[in-house]
Amino acid sequence: MPELDALRDAFLRSRSVENGKDYLAAALAAGEVDPERVQLAAYLGEPAASAQLGGRVPAAPQDLREWLSGLGAYGHETAVRAALSVATRSVGERSLPAAPERALAAARGWILERTEAALRECVDAAQVAFASAYGEGEGQDQIRELVHDTAVSVDGTALACCYAAQAACEPTAERAAAIASLTAFTSSDQDDAQLRAWVREDLTRWALGLEDPLRA
Question: Does the model's pTM come out above 0.85?
C-alpha cells in the first residue's frame, strides 16, 4: 500500500498530531492497525492516538510502577515488551554477563516465536539470571528480602534482565505487568521520566505499526 507507506513515513519523520491522525485513519480503515492498539498508544501518552480517539483517553497513573502495571489491560505481550524495553534500554551499550544476556534473548525469543520451547527457555533463563543477580550462599534469602523492601540490589542490571524473561513466564497479563513494574524498580540508576519515555516510544512504535523495535 504505497499511500499508507507514505503516510507512515511522514508520521515517523514528523511525529506531528496532524500526520499521525492521517496515518491512523488510513491504517485503521485498511485493517493494518488494531483499534485496541490505538487505545494502548493513547494510554502511553501518544498525542496522535489521543487525537484519533477524540480525546477519550484511557486513564494513566502518574506513578511509573502503577503505569507499567496498568499495561496488563492491553495484553501479555504488551507487558513483556515493557519489561524488555526497560531492561534493554537500561543496559544500553554495556556488555552483559552471560546470564542476564541470555534472559534478554529469551524474552525477545518468546515475543517473536511464542512457542513452548521459547517459554521453557524463558523459565530457565530467568532462574539463572535471578541467581546471578543475588549470588549464591546462605545469605541469599535475606538479600532478596532487602531488595524487595528497599531500592538496594546486588546487581540491578541482571535483576532487570531476569524480570524481562520472568514476565513471559507469568500466567496472566496482569501478573506479567506487575513483573514489568519490578523491572523499573531495579533500574535505580535511571529516573522515572527516562524509563517512561523509553517504554512509551518502544511500545508506541509497535502498537501503531510504525516499526517493531525487536525486529529493527
Answer: yes
